[in-house]
Specification:
Length: 192
């Protein structure tokens, strides 16, 4: 069977991500993908030899897309605290727009489905440098981890609809991030 012109690794990846967003990982199968492209399932093996390989690619692509979405905030002409707040807001917006793909990346505990560690470090390094402008270089790793934990934790609780006591979640998110960053400006505790 000839390969249709619309069948390539990116098209498969985009369709897989759409299937995940439509119904979770359980909604994704190579058979369903093949039907979507009107090809036989083995035709997909040319691009992804297993569902696990495809999920790893979806995870890596989701991480790359997340960091692409954050880049404009990092490049903004603003003080470091404002940049970090803008990064956090863009992060939250990305997760809200892609909740299941985001959740797949950050709740996965299977090593061979995770994006490459070295690539993740490369992607996060500019953000650690931004946080270093707030926390100081010596504390930048600790401060970055806390920043990411705050943002990710808030996002995951929000995606799981766990904030049920009312109030303005946008304001709560911004206030929480600002308070965390201000704490690093005013710290009198050891960096590690």
């Amino acid at each position: 069977m000839p390969y249709p012109s619309q069948l390539d690794a990116d098209a498969i990846l985009n369709t897989a991500r759409a299937m995940i967003e439509a119904g979770g990982v359980g909604n994704l199968s190579l058979n369903k993908l093949a039907k979507a492209f009107k090809v036989s399932t083995p035709s997909l093996y040319r691009y992804y030899d297993s569902k696990a390989a495809l999920l790893r690619a979806v995870n890596a692509d989701t991480v790359q897309r997340l960091f692409d979405a954050l880049a404009p905030a990092l490049d903004a002409d603003a003080p470091p605290t404002e940049k970090a707040l803008r990064v956090a807001m863009r992060y939250r917006a990305f997760a809200a727009a892609h909740p299941l793909a985001y959740g797949l990346v950050f709740t996965n505990t299977i090593d061979n489905l995770r994006p490459d560690d070295e690539e993740n470090v490369r992607l996060v390094r500019p953000y650690q440098q931004l946080i270093a402008q707030i926390s100081g270089e010596a504390a930048s790793l600790v401060a970055t981890r806390g920043y990411l934990a705050l943002v990710h934790g808030f996002v995951m609780l929000e995606l799981a609809q766990q904030f049920r006591r009312g109030g303005d979640l946008d304001a709560a998110f911004e206030q929480s991030v600002r308070a965390y960053l201000a704490g690093w400006h005013n710290r009198d505790f050891p960096s590690e």
